[in-house]
Amino acid sequence: MNVREDTAHLWAALKEVKDPEFPISVVDMGLIYDIRRDGGRVEVDLTFTAMGCPAMEFILQDVRDRLAQEPDVSEVHINIVWSPPWTADRMTEEGREQMRMWGVVV
Amino acid sequence: MSEPRRYHAPDELDADTRQALINLIWAIADSKVVLGRRYAEWANRAPVLESGVAAAAMAQAELGHTRALYMLLRAFPEVPADVTDEEQFRDHYNAPSFLDRPLAKWTEFVAVNLIFDGALTEVIKAMRGSAYEPLAQRIDKMLEEERFHQMHGRDWLRRLARQSEAARAELEEAVGRVLPETLCWFGRDDDAGAVRLVELGIVDATPDELRRRLTALLTPLLEEAGVRVSVDTLPWEQFNPQTRRVEQAA
Fold first, then answer.
1. Rounded to an integer, what distance in angstroms lies between the CA atom of residue B250 and that of residue B232?
2. Who among B136, B137, B141 is closest to A51 (CB)?
3. CATH 3.30.300.130 matches A5-101
4. How large is the ipTM?
C-alpha cells in the first residue's frame, strides 16, 4: 500500500466501500494497489480476488461513487490491474481479523 | 545483450503481427467463453456435489478470463465490436467443434477439462513475460486460477480409470475425440503469424513446441490411468486456421 499525503483522505474514503461478498472494505481486502491524483482527476489501480469475480461491477461503481463524493475530486479513472496477482497476503491486519470473525481463516 | 523490445499498444506492432495476435487472443477468449458455458451446464449434474461446485467455479474463472481477454482485443480497431461484447451471444465462436454442443457425459467433461483446458493453459503459459505488455500483465493471474482446473482434470482421470472398465473405456473414447482437434488447435507449425509471434517474444513457443509440451504433460497421466489413445494423423484437411476449428462435414 502506497499512501501519499495528498491521497490519504481518498484511501480513508475507500475504507467505507465494502466488498459485497464479505463486509470488509476494499482497502482492507488489499484490492486497492495505488491512488494517484492530478488536480481533481483521481486514478485508482484496483484488482479483484478472482478474474471471474461476480461482484466486479458493484465494486467499481461503489468506488467511483464514493470518490466522487469528495469535494476535491472531479473525475475518477479506474485501472483494473492483474499484476501482481492478489493474494491473501495483501489484506491488512484489520481485514484478516474481520475475516476470522466471519469464520474464514486467512 | 540488449533487452528485447516490449510493446505496450497495438499501434506499436506491424499489421501482420497484429493479425496474428488478434487471431490467437480471439481463439483463446472464444474458447474460454464456450468452455465456461459447457462447464456451467454440469454445475448441478456432476456425479458428486463437490464437482458440481467445482464446475461452477471453473466456469466462472473461464468467463472472467474471457472478459480480461476481450478487453485486450478491444484495443485493436480491426476487431468487430460484437466480438468483444461478452453480454451478447454470437452464432459462431472460434472454439473447437467438440464444444459446439453440451458435453453429454461426465467422461467428456473430464476429457475436455484435462486436455483442452490443459492446452489453453499451455498456450497461456507460453505468454508469460510476453513482449506484448498488456497481455503479460494478465498471465500470472490466469495461470494461478487454472492450476485448480488441472488438478480437477487429473484427479478425475485417475478416479474414472479406477472406477470400472466401462468408465475407463468411455473415457478413452472421449479422449480420442478431444485430443486430435486440440492438437490442431495450436495451429500449423509453418503458420507465418505464429512464427512472427515467437520471433518478437510475444509467445515463447511455436505450435509444434506447444503440441510437444502438452503431449509430454498428458502422456504419462494417460498411461498411468491405462487410457490408450494413439493419434497417428491430425485432421489438418478440415482445420480452418482462421477459426482454429476442425470443421465437421455437415
1. 24
2. B141
3. yes
4. 0.77
